[in-house]
Structures are given as C-alpha cells and as structure tokens.
Amino acid sequence: MRLKSLIGIILWGSMLVACGPDNRVTLAEKLMAEKETDSAIAVMNKIKEPLHDLSKRDYALYALLMSEAVHRKQQLNAATDTLLLPAIKYFSQSGDSLYAERALYCKAHLDRRLNRMSDAMQSFLKALLFLQNSGNHEQLYRVNTWLGVVCLNQEEYSGKVRYSKEALKAALDLGNMFYKNMALCDISTGYLFLNQLDSALYYAQAAYEAALADSVPRQLPFIYTNLGSIYSQQGEPAKALDYINKSIALRPAKDTVRILSLYGAKLELFGKLGQYDSAYHYFQKVISSPNPSSVADAYNNMAKIYHKMGRASDAYPMLQRFIELSDTIRKYRHTEEAIALQELYKHEQLSVENLYWRTRAAERQRNVYWMTTISLLLVWVASAVYFIYRRNRNHLMAQQHQLVKKEKELAQQREITSENLRRMVELEQKEAKLKETFFRRLSQKVVQEIERGGNVILSDEDWDDIVQNADIIFNNFTKRLQQTYPSLNKDDLRYCCMVKMQLSQSGMAQVMHLERDSVKKRLKRIRMEKMGADSGVTLEELLYNF
To answer: Which regions span the lipid bilayer (predicted)?
Structure first.
C-alpha cells in the first residue's frame, strides 16, 4: 500500500514540476528588461518546441518576448501575428494588464507595418484601456503619441490633436521635458493640418519657449520648421523663410536629405517673394536630393514660378518632368501596396495553418493529460478495490461517479474540437473571398472609375496588368482557362477577368463601351458555345473556384 502510494506521489510531483515556470523564459525576460535583445533571443532559441515544452503562461510570455525582440530589431512581419495572438488571448483573459498592454502595443506596431491602420488604431486603443489607472505615464505617453501618428496617417486630424494632448498630460505627469516638447510640436502639427493656424502657431510658440526654458535645444530645428510651415500657410513668406533658415543652421551637415527638403521650402518661399534667381539657385540644389518626392516638388514649384514670370516655354519641361516623377512615385507606392497585400494574404494562410496546428497540439496535450489522469485513477482504484472493496463499497461507487464525470468532460472537449474544425473550414472560405478582394483591390483603377460613373478607357497595358494580377492571385487563372477551353480568345479572357473581378454586366458594358444586352449575349456565348456549360449554370458559378 505504501509503495503504490509513493509511486502515485512521485508521478503527480513530476507533472507539477513539468508545469512549473521555465527558467529560460525567466532569464529571457530579465535580459529583455536589460536591453540585451540578442542575448534574450539566443536564450529563447534554445527552447526547441515552446508550444509543447512550456506551460500556457510561459508560452504566452515567450511569444510576447520574442515579438518584442523582433520589434526592437525592426523585423516585424506577418508571421509575428501567429506569436502575438496567443499572448494577447492569454494575458487578456488572465487579467494581467501589464503583459496584455505590452502584447497589444506590439501588435499595433505590427498592424502599422502591414498597412492595416484601422487595426493598428484598435490595438492601440485596447492597449490604452489596460493602461487606465496604471500610473504608467511613460507608456501612456507612447501609446497616445502613436495614436496621433496613426490618426495623421488616416487624415483624422482632430484625433491627432486629441491624442497628442493626452500625450502632453502624460509627459507632464512624468516630468519629461523632451516628451513635453514633442507633444507640443505634435499638437501644433495637428492644428496645422486642420488649418486652424492660430492654434497651430500658439502651440508652436509654446514649444519654442519650452525648448529654451527646459534646455531641450535638439527640438529647435523641428520647431523652426513647424513655424516656417505655419507662417507660409498664413501668407507671410518672409517670416517663414527666416524660420526655415534657422532650422537649417541648427541641423548637422550630414543631415543632407532633411536639409535638401528645407531647401525645397526655400525654393517655394523665394518664388512667393518674387526673388526668382534665389528660387532657381535652390532649385539646382534640391534636384540632387535622393528623395524623389522632394525632387518632384522642386520641379512643380519651378514650373509655377516660370508660369508666374510668363515663361511658358520654360515652365512646360519643368511640369513634364514633375509628371514623370509623380508617375514613378505612384508606381513605387502601388508596388509597395501590392507587396503589402501579398504579405497580408500570406498572413491569412499562416493564421489558418496556425489554428490547425494549435488545435492539434491542444488535442494531443488534452489526450496526454487525460490518459495520465485516468491511468493514475485506475491505479488508485485498483489498489482501493484490492484492499478495501468489502469494507468501503460506497467509496468505490463515488469513484465510479467521478469517472463518469470525466467522460462527460471528455465529450465536451470533443465538442470543442469539432467547433475548432468548423472554424477552420470558415477560415478556408474566408481565404477564397480574400483572393477575390485582393484581385478587386489590385484592379482598383477600373472599379473606382465605374463607381464614379466615369468614362473607363483601358489601354492594352492596363489589360495586361489586370490579366497579370489575375494570374498571380488565382494561380495562372487565364493560362489554365486557355488550356481547358482552347477556343477562348483574348477578348473572352478579358470578360472572364471582369467576371472574376465581380463586375456587374452594366460595369462590363461601361468598360467595353457596349450596350448591356451585347455584354449579356457575349457572356452567354462564352459560357455555352466556348465552354460547353449547361443552361442552368452561370459563368460566375463556372469561374468561382476555377
């Protein structure tokens, strides 16, 4: 009896030790607090299978620390989301507001990295909820400041002002003069974009006075630039030029990109002052900038100056160069957006795979737990039956009741597993819809013109882009169509792309410059004559999963 009891105690003790805190995670947290990011990553990389080897809390903390580490190294990507989600879920439910806020703060920066500004706003706002009444003024300043950044990006300028004022309160509570000055500059910027120039000037001057009083000289270049922008918008180019010169004088010579940008501001101001030789002098400087936006603005401003001087023949090549640079910048931004969309698509795939493997891992963990528990119970029951069956029959029946209860719990767990599988199917359906949305967004030129009711004129190059996007998103969509239905010609494939884009027949008629009935007949001919489909099947249904 004593030997069997001792074996049971040893087994239970082993389980408790396995579920205890992992020293590697504790060490990694300490290293992260000491800003030893690379050392913390090295420690965490020694945990070969963290999802299986760590307790739920340790895994959540491991996921948070690893995400914070890649954020510090500016390496956030869509895969980081698979780490953050379990950390956010665990710490939000456990009520650990400190870790929950850190996880949400990290996710907000990930959302910004993936151009998901609405999601970033929601993550920052949730982080702010966990910070309420925490007394953590440092983090309150950071979260409110970043909320202002996101609002500015979303052109929600009143939100920029509101959150920057909250950041100012946190900076004052913290007693950090640099943060205070930054917040004042942010408030001024928000009012500038709202075109409330008196308020913008008030806070810019307050920032200037605070920089002098609090000995924060490194803020002065930014303050001078801000004051220059305000006076320029107020129609006082002479004052604006004075502040721009002060900003340039305080900047280190190595800060060439920023200085050249300020030269662009001087070019515009000299043009307003009618000092055209000086304007041309700074034009020659700005066009050497590595920043294409600064160069484009320089050509645009010089074209305006030549037009103002009545030199139309000189203004025309400047304007033409501005248009070329603008097209280049627009194509670059379009490429960035396409890359971001592809990364989002990969992220959705990772989320589906992650849910599947988490479900499998949770199921295996539950099976091991229940098998161990049932095995231990069986050993205990066998010992009890052997020694006290005749004297304690009622006690045995109580144990059997416990087994029945465990079986009910197992049944509930199976129901949970079935629910998770159902969610996986829904995510797969969401993935198919996401592909349609990506294709529609990549072809936004057509969609926007149709929604505005404009005259849609597509060149062969535009059609080539649409066909190329269809092939990228839907795995060689047009090529597979051509192989399956060889009689389809180029125009037929274009109609199939518009169907995949979810354009209405009216929209197709607007693109092809035909009557709606002609489009309807053309779609019917493609479906029945060239694809051999039954009359009861629509072309949309044929192409939905193609």
So the answer is: 368-389
